[in-house]
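Ticket 4471: requesting a sanity check on a complex prediction with magnesium ion. Repro inputs:
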Amino acid sequence: MTLIRHAEERIAEMVESGEVGCPCHLYIGQEAIAAGVCAALTATDTVWGGHRSHGHYLAKGGSLAALFAEVLLKSTGCAGGRGGSMHLAAVEVGILGTVPIVAGTVPLAVGAAFAYKLRGEDTVAVAFFGDGALEEGHVHESMNLAALYRLPLVLICENNLYASHLHWGERRVADNFDRAGEFHSVPGERVDGNDVTAVHAAARAAVERARRGEGPTLIECRTFRWRGHVGASFDLDVGVERRGELADWLPRDPLLRVSEELIEHGVADLAQREQAIDARIAGAVEAARAAPQPQPQPEEALCAH
Amino acid sequence: MTLIRHAEERIAEMVESGEVGCPCHLYIGQEAIAAGVCAALTATDTVWGGHRSHGHYLAKGGSLAALFAEVLLKSTGCAGGRGGSMHLAAVEVGILGTVPIVAGTVPLAVGAAFAYKLRGEDTVAVAFFGDGALEEGHVHESMNLAALYRLPLVLICENNLYASHLHWGERRVADNFDRAGEFHSVPGERVDGNDVTAVHAAARAAVERARRGEGPTLIECRTFRWRGHVGASFDLDVGVERRGELADWLPRDPLLRVSEELIEHGVADLAQREQAIDARIAGAVEAARAAPQPQPQPEEALCAH
Amino acid sequence: MRALTYAQAIREAHAQMLALDARVFIVGQGLWSPWYAGSSLEGLDREFGCARVVDSPVSENAVTGLAVGAALAGLRPIVFHPRMDFMLLAMDPIVNQAANWSYLFGGHAGNQSSVPLVIRAVINRGGEQGAQHSQALHAMFMHVPGLKVVMPSTPADAKGLLMAAMADPGPVLYIDDRWLYAETGEVPTEPHTVAIGEAAVRRSGSDVTLIGISWMAAECVRAAGILECEGVDAEVIDLRSLKPWDKTTVAASVSRTGRAVVADGGWRTAGASAEIAAEIAERAFDNLLAPVARVALPDTPAPASRAEERAYYPGAEQIAAAARALLERSAGGLVKRVAA
Amino acid sequence: MRALTYAQAIREAHAQMLALDARVFIVGQGLWSPWYAGSSLEGLDREFGCARVVDSPVSENAVTGLAVGAALAGLRPIVFHPRMDFMLLAMDPIVNQAANWSYLFGGHAGNQSSVPLVIRAVINRGGEQGAQHSQALHAMFMHVPGLKVVMPSTPADAKGLLMAAMADPGPVLYIDDRWLYAETGEVPTEPHTVAIGEAAVRRSGSDVTLIGISWMAAECVRAAGILECEGVDAEVIDLRSLKPWDKTTVAASVSRTGRAVVADGGWRTAGASAEIAAEIAERAFDNLLAPVARVALPDTPAPASRAEERAYYPGAEQIAAAARALLERSAGGLVKRVAA
Ligand SMILES: Cc1ncc(C[n+]2csc(CCOP(=O)(O)OP(=O)(O)O)c2C)c(N)n1
Ligand SMILES: Cc1ncc(C[n+]2csc(CCOP(=O)(O)OP(=O)(O)O)c2C)c(N)n1
Ligand SMILES: [Mg+2]
Ligand SMILES: [Mg+2]
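Returned structure tokens:
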């Protein structure tokens, strides 16, 4: 979680300085979700994400250097510098892909789960998506398919209350996100998305259920993003004023809770650990800066697509 | 209801004889739904349907002659002979359109309801669709929009247990169709779709609720189609064998129940009334046969589209 | 008349239509925030109320269907898609429903089953956004009977074509390009319409005809400037409408110049440039001095990095180069084909 | 080799692929009933089990997305759309996702993020089904980089292109036409592939080249028969693959004959015929004796009545007429353009 936070704060600086040009949707404030869920997964389990997926990528074990390189559109990036922040993949550690079409990867995660089941593997697929994604009809289609075929799928709805500038109350009537799958027989649960222990416990139960062949589960993780919808600033960029809400959420910092617990448990070298993380980040940034840009391919090669 | 039944039996004969060439999806067995719902509507209220909409069209007051003409693709048809059985409209009596893309008109009905509300009218829009349509994601999107904007919309799910050859149990886990809108705050109710009184009562309540500005309601009308998914035959055409089920449903004939009640209430001229209906049908068929086909338009005129 | 930016012109058209006709409303994503639509819709919610300027859930299909149904029920909707890429989720209401509806129910535009709908889609690319946030898909819609497609390149046309789209009895797809939002130009103060289907000759010339669409029409004007310095006199036609498009004006020009470059911001294969090139080759057959040249995107998804973006998107330089190549190929000036 | 119908050949390809490769599965609507797919999938569920031959709910978008995800997870899916019209609901997984994916994640086909997917779509029209059940939308997909598109017209190709589509590392759209299902022809008994991107010359000739796609390729063969009786020697090219398409073979033929008719079962404007005509006009410019003729659907939705259907769908007669018109226009035989 600290890695995610610090890496993103570094990215935020690079966005503000203009060094990073691609659109970056920061995960700051939501780190407990990726961390808690991915800790419940094996290396072969797979995750799918969206536009706000730096956290998913790092929590699942994606290379830090390849993240910075991708955000800088370098050929050493995890998408070869052809995607940018919204397009992360690291197939070798089970990050099958994150793309910025809202809810676009949800049916794909269903397909991966379908593959695991057909092959008789006990691998689990995890779809991360936002509260806004539940407004896309194919998420409901997907839940029906997953339930009907009893697929090893875990649906993580990261409810940060907003879809870009619109609060959920401007987009739907009821605050019942955890029940989004009920009609399709996908059981749901709400957890405090800023409590990594709670997220982890719920994810572990859902993953185990999936591995037992009992089908998909939806977990609504209630959280809040600290920064704006896109970019580094604190949300003044989309014409909404969320200062009051943010003030309520800042004390619920998911990292703070963990640090407190760690200290309680006698872990004393927190500062040292943070320093090590920052050193890794600095190294990743340097490597990314030094890496070459992808070469514009001659049309011939591109046309092979 | 008798009109719908007899008209469709006539169409079935004309399909079997080859006189009708366009695909016809017969409503026989489901008549109580259209009749019960449309009896709860004013002339200005509007209905939207799908591929199996002869019943909706006639119950809402569509011209019998224009139906037969349309099925025979004549220029006097209710779609000018450019649509056929699956494309019925009669704007003057509030039939805004039926088309064969499953669930295609559900968002359109939402739009009509949106128009009535924006103009401050107390008109209600009704969307008829099948159990299969609930598998299309945009029906769920539509329910959310209708609930969010509190639109005067009534959603009639005609659950005849099958979507073409597939029983609902092959398409979803739970038999909870009446709760399809729950997540989106659309209240639902299940009624016996073969009981015109029950359908009518539920529809009236939903229509009144809509007129009061309280938003959309979903009514699941449980029923069974007697004929095959398409065409005149008794369901041997799509590779499924439903003889047993059909035997259970035949005694629950919606018309039989009504006749019995009418007789109980001392209405004695049933036979005479049926004769009058048959005479109207015969007249409509003759008129349709005599009518001209639409003229292939010169490309110029068509290109105006 | 006064100078407005392209984005301001779009906003003004919306505001005037909302003010003049109570049936008009806008629905789509991003209407209550400048984030999605730039300044092209700014403040309309405050001016006309959130009941008529409706920022919607992330439900492209049903929201577009809502607009189709509202049109059939007598309103005059504008459904807004802040990116064309997202509109792919709404192909059913656009193609299956809106485009077919009036034909299906009677076969003539202006009947009771017309769909008086404006679908507004924004091409929003560049800026390292990557392949899913870069697509210019106008050719797909140009192919669909029952739809009209307009793509303005100037502020005046941005306003005039939007108002014309609204006045049309059928569904019209109005496509604007974020790259044009800051362009300025004179725009009539009063409501005005630009006839759908009529191209504009932006510059008269005798050596070669440059035919551009939207952003690429602006690039054609720049290319003509480059060519002028080299002594080449280019005619520039801004197509403005893609369906129907102005075959007469284009064919007449090419018949005169004998050379044509078609410049389109979509992919080359089966793109708008193919249709235009094919039609020119047919109509100006006897007068063509060289094959019609097409300047379009390579047949690959969009890259993300700035360097690759620069290589990917052609502009005035590529158009000028294509024109030069045509002139070299047919250096001798006007040469008529000799028929037997 | 033995004679099979087109539908039987499709079924055989499916059966052999299911038998040979445990990663192969089919998902879509109508797999457990002959109603949707005719005999082209008949009995596969009984032969290979319902876990690998999956008849799906009416959820085009998510079902197609499922296939994309399964491909990325190592399976070899065939997602089946019994009508192209319905597939419009699946544009996001096809265009935004499958077509862009491998480029987005590395930029070269065959990388770990390739999508080895076959999307099978059926053109199913005629029979008074009306405009929403008649659309042939292949041109839309031909436009999309990252997708391949094949459209067989013979039983042998129906089998060979399906197996080639499956062997391809990227997403391939395979389009078959119900009007061809009863056509019979020799089909190799063993698994066989037909190279994607290679046209087939169905008949050699010297006066005019008829280029057809799918059903219209069969009509071109018939048109050549008609023309033969009139002393006209037509070459017939069956395009087979639409993307990539065989520009070399077509251009070489037209350069020889000097005349080309492009016959396509889609709408004319911005259709496949536009791309092919534009490319011919460019590549065979110096040898063309007359403008390339296009025989395609008029730019209107499909009508329903049998009489109007007959007028709407062109066939061998219209192709032959177009060829005759070309010959009249350039009656003097081969006339070379005189360059200055
Ligand atoms: C299909 C589609 N529609 C619209 C958008 C524009 N868009 C980008 S992010 C976003 C909001 C998503 O909200 P949510 O799912 O809650 O995720 P969050 O940003 O809160 O993490 C929208 C609407 C998109 N990318 N894709
Ligand atoms: C978008 C779309 N997908 C698939 C079809 C094919 N189709 C026609 S009717 C039908 C079944 C519909 O079932 P249901 O909604 O229950 O209506 P019913 O036929 O039972 O009245 C299907 C799948 C279609 N017409 N449209
Ligand atoms: Mg959110
Ligand atoms: Mg049904």
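Notes from triage: Chain C touches chain D through 61 residues (CB under 8 Å). Leaving this open until the requester confirms.
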